Amino acid sequence: MKPVVSVLNAWSCVVISVFAIVILSVLGSLYKSEHPGFTGSEGEPEDGAAVAASIFTAVLVYIAFFVFCAFQAYLHMRARRGGAISLS
């Protein structure tokens, strides 16, 4: 199987996805726990659980990006070594 995206794009996507998963998971946890800094003041969302659900949906999308891009990076590494089966 050949990679679809370039090696730079694959590794960039992996790094960005990891950061996005960590940051959004923390934000989602804070909204889910109804942290007063995020839901207690005026002008903030009143339903922290609904906000947390949409943030966790974004986390799932970034997990899918991470899996796809990590597989693409693996395919690039395998192709650089000479493929799945090397005769030399």
Automatic annotation (TrEMBL):
Its main location: membrane. The chain crosses the membrane at residues 7-31, 51-71. GO terms for cellular component: membrane. Pfam families: V-ATPase_su_f. Keywords: Membrane, Transmembrane, Transmembrane helix. It is found in: Membrane. The keyword Transmembrane applies. This is MARVEL domain-containing protein. It comes from Aspergillus brasiliensis (strain CBS 101740 / IMI 381727 / IBT 21946).
